[in-house]
Design goal:
Elements: E1 2-6, H1 16-30, E2 34-40, E3 42-43, E4 46-47, E5 55-58, E6 61-66, H2 80-89, E7 95-99, H3 104-115, E8 120-123, H4 130-134, H5 137-153, E9 157-160, H6 163-171, E10 178-180, H7 194-202, E11 210-214, H8 223-235, E12 241-245, H9 250-262, E13 269-273, H10 277-286, E14 289-292, H11 301-308, E15 312-315, H12 322-327, E16 332-333, H13 338-349, H14 352-369, H15 372-387
Parallel strand pairs: 1-2, 1-7, 2-6, 7-8, 8-9, 9-10, 11-12, 11-14, 12-13, 14-15, 15-16
Antiparallel strand pairs: 3-4, 5-6
Helix pairs in contact: 1-15, 2-3, 7-10, 8-13
Amino acid sequence: MKVLHVIPSVSPLLGGPSQVVFDLVKALRECGIDAEIATTNDRGREILDVPLYQRIEYQQVPVWFLPRFSPPMKEFIFSAALTGWLWQHLRDYQILHTHYLFSYASTCAGAIARWQKIPYTVRTIGQLAPWALAQSSLKKQIYTWLIERHNLNQAAAIHCTSAGEVEDVTNFGIQTPKINLPLGVVPPTWLPGAKQQLREIYQIPPHTPIVLFFSRLHPKKRPDLLLEALSILANKNYDFHLILAGTGEPDYCAYLQNLVASLNLVTHTSIPGFVTGKDKELLLQGADIFVLPSFSENFGVAVAEAMAAGLSVIITPGVQIAPEIAAAAAGIVVAGELAPLQEAIARLLTNAKLRQELGKNAINLVNSRYSWQAIAQSLASAYQAIIDRKI
């Protein structure tokens, strides 16, 4: 079976979706599925330094990179070259899997697949959640009316990653069959002495709990709410150090820097920027508490990665795997409001035993539910059912 995954960008600046497509394709290939990726050379305001118009090994999987149109157009990312490549090569694959909505690459790939009668699945990446639809709502309404609704209705299946996402797609009026499969987590490479190393790097006292925010710096993720909650705790003399890791639009990053200063959190906060590789593993394994008070996450890859590292997590109901986390006692789910958030953080800051219990439960949940191997096998079976016209 030969499968093509199309995504507008695999820039690390886009966070979870980029890493997910690499991990998913790698897992599919380990299951014997000949899976590849077609994308653009987008990297935000820059471009990736990669060979174009040829199949290369990138992040351990085969990828075709095509040039994007300049200047960058955020997630839409127009590429005439990708259009031509898809028209010529899409018929070489038995099934297509697109990632993202309201984006040129996915729209174009779906249209060509319909023309060439190739079945395709769509991963909406949470873009049909109420909060997401409310952003640039008029543009999305027009795009939906002209293009996206037809694209979704003509798909062979919609790949959802949580029960909440299934509900969002259904509420959008899409009757296409849904495949509800979570995303996976690559098991961490354990680093002995991670907690001590992290404290040495950031000059944090040995017994000061480390609060970690590790995600794209974006208003949706609400790092500003976390900062406000921590400022209240700092005024009450709670001991903590925040590591605010990630990157985003320069204006928003500058806003967060100014907010840290205005809330008198400078001595309590480190902002390392974009972190990957061993440095990322060190953050996840060396911290004590992970907080993501997001408005909307169809899955929350960063949350799952934190749980895999044994971190106690605090999330909001907008993270759509929240019901699974609550049921497994693998974290604390609180309303996305200031008072309950600061109360939950205070509770974990002063209770190391509870942090350990939640972390242990989190590892068990990840191992039982978010294995890439099991997910890839289930998705491969779904692909085969689509090809055999059983879905």
